[in-house]
Structures are given as structure tokens and as C-alpha cells.
Design brief:
With 183 residues, the chain is an alpha+beta fold. It is 37% helix and 19% strand. The longest helix has 20 residues, at 49-68.
Length: 183
């Protein structure tokens, strides 16, 4: 990390030296990707139609689980703000208050891992939006959420209190009718 104050007469030299040290430490390819990510944060790049379709298909089960819990899904910005090469499709999700985070659809893992990873990322985003999601349907009076995991090569939601698998990611039971929409 480097801090250069606005108007520092040695700022450009300090930044150049920092970049040289970083390149030496992480290598040319990783450094180029890092610099591309820095540029993408300032100027996001729209995803291709193929990337958009892969992103929508991969996120659909997680968004379905948000909806059955009565939660508002994030706004999905189909734009890349990160360069992870050919290993991932990077996009951006944000809430009504415009707070957001990057998400990644990992392309080199199993379908179960891909879905698990997305569930984990969306769950992280929801922590800033509302209390517990998804709420545990096994312990309705408790205030804990289900956690994503991979079991038998399938992405699932499980109760962290007793380890019991509740549902596959994308198949959560609706809580409507039991206690109304989740808070």
C-alpha cells in the first residue's frame, strides 16, 4: 500500500517506484492484471452477451432463494470492475442505497463450487442490507442464518447449529405462511 498526498512533488516518482517493487514481487502477468483492475474500477467494461448469459444463469438459483425469503434482490451491473483473466466472469451487485461489491462466477470449478461461491458472495452482500439471510427454517425462534456448503458435489444451505442440510442452493422452502416474509 502506498499513500501519496495530492500535490506531492515526488508523487509520480513514489508511485513509479511502488509499481516497480510490486511488479518484481508478483510478476509481469499479475501486475498487468492488477493495473487492469485499477482501470476497470474507474471505467467498468460491459460484459459480452455470452458473459451476461452465463452470469444470469449462474446467479438464478441464489436470486430465487432471496425472493422466497421476501428479500429484494440486488441490482446486477453487467460490467466488469476486476480482471481475473479467463478464470472468472466479474460483475457488480448493489443495493438500493447504492452500496455494492464485486462478485465472481468462477469458470474452472465444478457447478457445485460455482453455485456455492455465488451463494457465499451474495450472502456477504446481504449482511450489509439486512439481518440474517437466509434465516434458518429449522430454528424459527433463533436468530441465525443458514450457511452455504458443498456436500456430495452439490451446493447446499445447512444449519450451522446442528450441521443439518436444509436445501440445495436455489431450492429453499418459502417462509411465507409460517411467519410471513423474513425481516
Amino acid at each position: 500500500m502506498i499513500i501519496i498526498w495530492n500535490g506531492d512533488p515526488d508523487g509520480e516518482e513514489k508511485l513509479r517506484a511502488f509499481h516497480e517493487r510490486m511488479r518484481a514481487r508478483i510478476g509481469d502477468e499479475a501486475f498487468a492484471r492488477h493495473m487492469r483492475t485499477q482501470d476497470l474500477m474507474k471505467h467498468p467494461q460491459e460484459l459480452t452477451e455470452v458473459q451476461k448469459a452465463l452470469l444470469r444463469d449462474a446467479l438464478a438459483p441464489v436470486l430465487r432463494d432471496l425472493e422466497v425469503a421476501g428479500q429484494v434482490p440486488p441490482l446486477i451491473r453487467e460490467e466488469s470492475r476486476e480482471d481475473l483473466g479467463d478464470d472468472a466472469i466479474c460483475a457488480w451487485i448493489e443495493g438500493p442505497d447504492r452500496s455494492g461489491q464485486g462478485i465472481r462466477v468462477w469458470l474452472n470449478g465444478s457447478a457445485g463450487y460455482q453455485l456455492y461461491s455465488l451463494a457465499e458472495q451474495v450472502q456477504e452482500w446481504t449482511a450489509d442490507q439486512w439481518a440474517t439471510w437466509p434465516p434458518c427454517p429449522l430454528h424459527l425462534d433463533a436468530d441465525h442464518r443458514l450457511e452455504p456448503d458443498i456436500r456430495d458435489d452439490e451446493a447446499v444451505w445447512y444449519c450451522p447449529n446442528d450441521g443439518q442440510t436444509v436445501a440445495a442452493v436455489g431450492s429453499l422452502p418459502s417462509r411465507r405462511g409460517r411467519r410471513g416474509p423474513a425481516q
